[in-house]
TrEMBL record:
The lineage of its organism: Bacteria, Bacillati, Bacillota, Bacilli, Bacillales. It holds the Pfam family HTH_18. PROSITE patterns: HTH_ARAC_FAMILY_1 (PS00041), HTH_ARAC_FAMILY_2 (PS01124). The keyword Transmembrane helix applies. This is Helix-turn-helix domain-containing protein. Residues 681-779 form the HTH araC/xylS-type domain. It comes from the Bacteria. SMART domains: HTH_ARAC. It is found in: Cell membrane. It is a multi-pass membrane protein. The chain crosses the membrane at residues 21-42. Keywords: Cell membrane, DNA-binding, Membrane, Transcription, Transcription regulation, Transmembrane, Transmembrane helix.
């Protein structure tokens, strides 16, 4: 074998007819083409894997923190809202012994109040009122008064009243409807917030919403993400029923239980797979929860490992094969060049093409040509869907960065004639699920919209060629049409009205639902279509609620639609939130900004008047949702009639500030101050009695009086003019100064008496008195 290699090498170096330069060049080329592949593969494997793992861990930590902050904020808002609702006059202690069936008005008010709670926060699935009687009952806006007959459920609900905290969470609480599987996470607010409780306000969380929040953490469909309690019980998990997923989830849970850190991340190895696990915990009202998410590192780094190893293997094998086959290449190196020339000149090759590289290229070229024809056929089939998707994004404003010329060019690429054309939009809205003879149920909105879109497609296709149906999946269907400009606007408008009327009558008749068709104005600019859709959605709200089918003309409803009109929805949302939270200064500032934005956008008196009427209705609706009767604050005045007499923006701003916002917030604050003042007085007495104890704290006082630390801190600062900790420090410093002057106790003994560690007491005393305790004693004596 070795002798054959020596003979081959001698022939290749001495008798092959090739010079040393050619052989050295060939070997150099082989090394250049093979060694870099091996080096790059090895470097990519080392650096790529480490970089991916580092980035995954960093992204995990960031995503986990954002999700925890979001859920923590949502739960904090819910706790604050529960505390405010518990102070409502409808939660008076009289209902504890009241015959709810006889007191019809009181019971109805409770139903409405519970319904308002459930609608105030999407996170709330159900709001119930539990009355701890001899025969305990549950009051629900959806199920009415439900007696609790099951002894196990009675014990569970009665246990709620024995909890030390006035506000706390329960991870698996039955809903009191007789269904054993009907349990959920619940926020419990004992009633009343101060004193002996007679019942509890129970807010059940929507498990689907919690699952959605947890799923936001999951970046890997093969990983795991869940929320667990302090003892390791999984509370919320978007489980897919897969056995492998369940085993992974259990392994991650066991590994997290064994860790004492509050937040962190690490690598978990399981069954030959590596997972990046990130976890963090937070506490709400004494209840400790942990977020956990796991992402497969092996799957993410597998392409890097495969490519790196492939490059190493290919480089090594290529180098060996190149050395072994170099003598073949030296003999046939010019034949492929001639073959390529023959193919270019369309000459037939003189030799057999089987096994030749260029023959392979030729074969591949024919194969690619065939694939190209197949792909072209598939593209033709997918063309309608691509056209529909483009036009849908166009009318929704996703191509705002493109110019008019670019938009027309794209439309023409989809065989839509744009030269000398009028463009117009129709918006079809269906409603009326509550009708007895309706063909669809309330949970079949998408099915009903799909049926309406199909009917519209059949009608439009028979009347006009240039049209596109757009299903918005929200009980509305859009129709984009174009008409040649050789017709007058009135002629096109007449045809459009006939089409709209036909659509309204046909859809209403077939689906047994109320149908409204809103016609937009004709425009010659494609860029106007997104704004027209906004106008149509706003104008369709003016439909007649009693009509089975109707046609609305945007130009007749808003004659000035040539001017852009915008309603400041974002400002209105901020204003309603400020009013709901009782924020006086922010509410006054926002209503001024709202009116000025209306003037800036429209500069039309009619639009300003309509916008002002709209925001007034929203304000009164928000007040009703908060549990207050607007007529009580406004002394029976007709606010709409007064507002209708105003014409100047400044007059409207003063009207809202002085006649609407200020009376409501003053009444709201007066009502809340009475309850909070009593609470702060009792907390102040408790501090003065126990300020020398090291156990006294804001959390301890909040638990003692059945409230939250946020509500107590805010009320304490508002009523006493100083925050809780400063008030406590002042009492302790005064006592310390008295002991320093009137007694011979050591500084360490004085510090322990007032509840401080000696070193901390000395630093705190120096901060407040600009001297040490010893210096103070010497100066005062």
């Amino acid at each position: 074998m070795w002798s054959r290699w020596r003979q081959s090498w001698y022939w290749w170096t001495q008798r092959s007819g090739r010079g040393n330069f050619y052989r050295r060049s060939l070997i150099l080329v082989l090394c250049i083409t093979s060694l870099p592949t091996a080096i790059i593969g090895y470097t990519s494997y080392i650096t790529g894997r480490a970089h991916i793992e580092k980035e995954i861990m960093r992204n995990h930590d960031t995503l986990l923190k954002k999700t925890m902050d979001r859920m923590n904020d949502n739960l904090a808002q819910l706790e604050l809202a529960a505390t405010q609702w518990s102070l409502d006059s409808r939660m008076d202690a009289r209902i504890a012994d009241m015959n709810l069936k006889d007191e019809y008005n009181t019971t109805q008010n409770l139903y409405r109040f519970l319904g308002l709670m459930k609608g105030a926060y999407p996170l709330i699935d159900q709001a119930q009122l539990y009355l701890d009687r001899e025969d305990p009952v549950i009051i629900s806006d959806s199920e009415g008064i439900v007696p609790i007959r099951n002894e196990l459920e009675r014990d569970i609900f009665h246990t709620l009243m024995k909890q030390e905290r006035g506000v706390f969470w329960w991870e698996s609480l039955p809903k009191g409807n007789g269904k054993p599987e009907s349990t959920s996470i619940a926020l419990i607010e004992k009633l009343p917030s101060v004193g002996e409780p007679y019942g509890a306000l129970i807010l059940y969380l929507n498990r689907d919403k919690l699952v959605e929040m947890v799923e936001e953490m999951a970046t890997d469909p093969n990983g795991a993400a869940f929320l667990m309690s302090k003892d390791g019980h999984i509370i919320v998990s978007p489980s897919n029923g897969n056995e492998e997923h369940a085993q992974l989830e259990a392994a991650v849970r066991e590994s997290v239980i064994g860790r004492s850190e509050e937040i962190g991340s690490y690598i978990l190895d399981r069954n030959g797979q590596s997972y990046s696990v990130a976890f963090g915990q937070f506490s709400r009202s004494g209840t400790l929860w942990k977020f956990v998410t796991a992402t497969s590192l092996s799957q993410l780094t597998a392409p890097v490992e495969f490519m790196s190893r492939s490059m190493l293997s290919i480089g090594g094998i290529g180098l060996l094969l190149a050395v072994l086959l170099s003598w073949v290449a030296s003999k046939r190196i010019y034949q492929p060049i001639m073959r390529l020339v023959n193919v270019i000149k369309d000459y037939k090759p003189t030799q057999e093409s089987q096994g030749d590289e260029l023959a392979f290229i030729e074969q591949e070229w024919r194969h690619l040509s065939q694939e190209s024809r197949v792909l072209e056929s598939k593209l033709d089939k997918a063309y309608p869907a691509l056209r529909s998707a483009f036009l849908l994004q166009l009318v929704q404003g996703h191509f705002y960065s493109l110019s008019e010329t670019e938009l027309r060019g794209r439309m023409e690429s989809f065989d839509w004639q744009t030269e000398s054309q009028w463009f117009v939009l129709l918006l079809v809205k269906i409603s009326g699920f509550a009708k007895e003879d309706g063909r669809f149920l309330e949970n079949e909105e998408q099915l009903a919209t799909f049926a309406a879109a199909n009917i519209a497609q059949e009608i439009v296709n028979t009347q006009t060629p240039n049209a596109e149906i757009m299903n918005f999946q929200d009980m509305t269907v859009g129709i984009l049409l174009s008409y040649p400009m050789d017709r007058t606007k009135q002629q096109a408008k007449d045809e459009l009205y006939l089409l709209a009327n036909d659509l309204a009558q046909t859809i209403s008749s077939l689906l047994k639902m109320q149908t409204t068709v809103c016609m937009g104005r004709l425009t010659a600019n494609v860029q106007d279509l997104p704004q027209l859709l906004v106008f149509l959605r706003s104008s369709i709200r003016y439909r007649d609620l009693k009509a089975d089918h109707q046609v609305l003309d945007l130009e007749e409803m808003l004659p000035s639609t040539n001017d852009d009109v915008h309603y400041p929805f974002a400002l209105e949302k901020e204003l309603m939130q400020a009013i709901r939270m009782g924020q006086s200064e922010q509410s006054l500032s926002l209503i001024e900004s709202f009116v000025h934005e209306l003037v800036r956008q429209s500069s039309k008196e009619k639009i300003l008047q309509e916008g002002a009427m709209q925001v007034l209705g929203s304000m009164l609706h928000t007040m009703l949702e908060s549990g207050f009767n607007p007529h009580h604050f406004f002394e029976g005045y007709n606010l709409y009639e007064q507002l209708n007499q105003l014409r100047e923006p400044e007059q409207m701003v003063r009207f809202f500030q002085t006649k609407v916002i200020s009376p409501y917030i003053e009444g709201l604050n007066e009502y809340q101050d009475i309850h909070m003042k009593r609470l702060v007085e009792r907390v102040t007495d408790r501090i003065q009695e126990r300020f020398m104890s090291s156990d006294i704290s804001l959390e301890e006082c909040a638990d003692a009086f059945n409230t939250t630390t946020y509500a107590l801190s805010k009320a304490f600062k508002q009523i006493n003019g100083v925050n809780f900790i400063d008030y406590l420090i002042t009492l302790r410093m005064d006592k310390a100064k008295k002991l320093l002057v009137e007694s011979d106790l050591k500084v360490n003994e004085i510090a322990e008496q007032i509840g401080y560690q000696p070193s901390y007491f000395i630093r705190l005393f120096r901060k407040y008195e600009n001297m040490t305790p010893g210096q103070y004693r010497d100066r005062m004596k």
